[in-house]
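User: Before I run my own analysis I want an independent prediction to cross-check against. Here's the chain; please return only the structure tokens and, at the end, one sentence I can use as a sanity check.
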Amino acid sequence: MRKRNLCVAVVLLLLMSWAWYGCSGKKKDFDRLLVELAGKDATIDASDWQRILDFLDGEKRSMGEFYADGVPDEEKIRDYISDFFQHRRPPMEIAFSGIGVQRALRVNFYLERSGSMVPYDAPSGDGSFKAAIVQMLNNLPGGDESNSIFVVNNEINPYPKGYSQFVADSDIFGATKGIGDASHTDFAAIFRQLLDKTGRNELSILVTDMIYSTEAMTGVNAQKVFAEAQGMINSVFKSQVKDKAMLIVKMQGSYNGPYYSFNSTEGKMYQGRRPYYIVVVGNNETMARLTRDADYQTFCRWQELRGYENMWLMETANMYEPYYSLLLSNKDIRGRFAPERSKGDAIHGAEGLEPDRHSGDIKLALAVDLGGMLIDKNYLTDIKNYVVSSDDKIELKEIREVSKEDDMPAERKYLGKATHIFVLQTDKVTHEQTLRIALRNVIPAWVERSSTDDDTNLSAANFAETTFGLKYLLQGIYNSYRKHSDGEPCYFELKIKLED
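Assistant: Structure tokens:
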């Protein structure tokens, strides 16, 4: 009897082992499929998703972890794919395009209707304000009544006529007259709504002049107003910023009507140009999706909007992981080295580095894809915004666009989809080390230029370009993001392994 029980136990163990190995083998097949589908473009689109579902359906017995109540669990599958690529070398962030509930984002649009906003759409103006808003909203796929319009000032109220009527309305401020109190704007309630009420597959867009105002500001010292604004921001921008990204787009529009300075309840007539701002909020995954999803790439062309000037993205999650690779043959290369290949075609390491015998230095050409980011192109290509960390002194000397001269057949697989060449220079590499190149997320210079502490002189040379207290408001928001970042906020980091 004891012998029979032992035989039964052995058989059971063998069956369990076969089942485990079978499941493990299918999981490896699944992983190979994922690499085939997303290993190069870092995107799972609708056709990729269908192939994944077909594979899982064919192996349903061994892949049951991806099902709930007999149907594929989208969230579990997506989480597995994201985690799988995050743990590969190099790690990769995967975009999901046109899958399930992501097919179209729900949009909540907020229009500030305060006394200083109405003159942007005056009948005597050039129409650039309304044109930019309509173009932006029309660039959204599926722009219909499923999206929501709100009018905001001292409170947040639904626009009574619906989405389609808003886009078609020739006088948006006339149609919203009487909604709320236009004498001041409750930014605390508005920003709290943007941070707390923007869901996973939602996008919130606020159009505002970014001028902080309260009910009783007459005669109040400007510095007290700025301190109050930053206190308001600190009370609103808390842990939610870890999951939410915020894009600030500076625009310019014609202005014809009364302007209310910070310490006055009486408006002074002004006709000319004035800045206003588009604020876009979404969770980190949604904001990263915008430039990767073909349906939303037109919407993200802020530079094409009438009146565009600049933009600034705030986030804590190192949202981007651009393609990059050392090149082996390029006009900017000096010295000698042997490539250390990573998985795939990209080269992320160099060994045996020797200085050029004529110049006495080493220059490397690093191809980088700077496309598909919600970052102004001037910021992206300014070497002052990058931090280069290494044991030996290595400098980032130049960032230039990829040219036809760079696109040689032998280099094409390393060039990949890169848009720019980073030129690195050093006298020597003395030992094995990791070179890190990080694009810092710092307050861009345009914020300081666009801010004023005194908006009482409408004839001032900078009045058409500046917003009262802007830098204090944005500094407070940035401080909240910086506080919840892991170290100094960066948009991305490139790592190159170097050996002498």
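Sanity check: The radius of gyration is 27 Å.
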